Automatic annotation (TrEMBL):
Residues 27-197 form the Tr-type G domain. Keywords: GTP-binding, Initiation factor, Mitochondrion, Nucleotide-binding, Protein biosynthesis, Transit peptide. It comes from Linum tenue. This is Translation initiation factor IF-2, mitochondrial. It holds the Pfam family IF-2.
Amino acid sequence: MASYWFLQEVGVNVKRQHSSEGSQILPRPPVVTVMGHVDHGKTSLLDALRQTAVAATEAGGITQHLGAFVVGMTSGASITFLDTPGHAAFSAMRARGAAVTDIVVLVVAADDGVMPQTLEAVSHAKLANVPIVVAINKCDKPAADPERVKVQLASEGLQLEEMGGDVQVVEVSAVKKTGLDDLEECLLLQAELMNLKARVDGPAQAYVVEAKLDKGRGPLATAIVKAGTLVSGQHIVVGSEWGRIRAIRDMVGKLAQQATPAMPVVLEGLKGLPMAGDDIVVVESEERARMLSAGRKKKFEKDRLRQIMEDRPVVEEPSEEDGPVAVRVEMPIVVKADVQGTVQAVTDALKTLNSPQVFVNVVHVGVGPISQSDIDLAQACGACIIGFNVKTPPGSVSLAATKSGIKIMLHRVIYRLLEDVGNMIVEKAPGTSETHVAGEAEVLSIFELKGRSKAAGGDMKIAGCKVIDGRVSRASTMRLLRSGEVVFEGCCSSLKRETQDVDAVGKGSECGMMLRDCQDYRVGDVIQCLEQVVRKPKFVSSQSGAVRIEC
């Protein structure tokens, strides 16, 4: 079943193909993206394939970056793998992975089965028109039920091979390292069927899968070459940034003079930090690179300002018909993270926490450590600073933040970050004022005080009551109900227990009650004690990792 590119790699002479324009078209290794629900063992499976231990070092046990690397298979072939995060907040990373991949390995835990991010990964693969190979992981667990997983996948529209379809399914265990040869065979077979080839000469076509700032080397872009060849020294435009390739390094840090199709590399020499997902364009000169970059930056800024205006909350004037309108407050946030893709993921996740009462306004994002300029910006707009996967700020910066009253939150795990911000939103939210029935009393008898009502010019009536639920308080508003209909609502002028004035009476106790400007009591009436309470929103996180604020 050896594929064309596999034969070339192991030393068999093959004839090069040429396009009609004379470009060299050669077989290339496949780019495989590993997707699936959080904690279903994606990174552990890759660790088993490349005999490393990346999963053990991941913060919180979950992948939070889009990793790219080449794995040498036991057959002698090589496959480029992309490892994507499974948490709900990293949906954009998974979408980028599917966009640059040839095959998606869908990892499903044999004990958990199909989960929300499983279905999302299937959706991304279908949208990108990429074939899927299913790896049912954790088959070594006692609760493992691969057959149940297959039925679930089939019910979601995947045409499994053993059910007459074309989607291959492999049962594996990353812990026991079983089924790995079968998975390798499936990937090689799928790649052979796809007959993957690419142009190797001429300007490269490549995409950024991740970007970060390095203290010594400056902006770094992790890229996958789709076609052509990237050569050290070329001028490139990456998104709205430009530069001259100073160095090309493979995923273990080794210098290379060029990068060919399906090869993940780290590029040095950019003038600024690109965005994850940006395309890489090779140009003929520095002047052309500057011009193209300037034009893209102008468009990017225009689009950014338009997006800001669209994201701003619309404040409508309240009307009498609408009733009371809840106040919406703003919570400005500065986001700093270690890589560009994570900045985007964190920013997108924070925006999902917006509620009718609190507007999360991300006023600034950046890659790299928290700096004095971040403190100054946060102080100017009253923002808190969120640092994700960045080190504790230097002493001078931390001291400046403390003096300015700026809150800095450092996190390495996305769901813990969202929990903390969600709790901040709950605290900051003004809440919704609601009327609650604090207690109910039934009128058992009526007493008259002759000539005591000066305002009415006659007698005053007292309702002899028994509290049947909750408690009634003299300071609260009272509502008089007769046969379920409201006949009066107003203040309580007097509340007595036996002969003593009291502030409140609890359930089961009898009392005498007078309502201001009300003399129409009847035996069997119910008097409700009304209290205004402020209901705060709730922060809710689901098993899938999705979070929201419920009002």
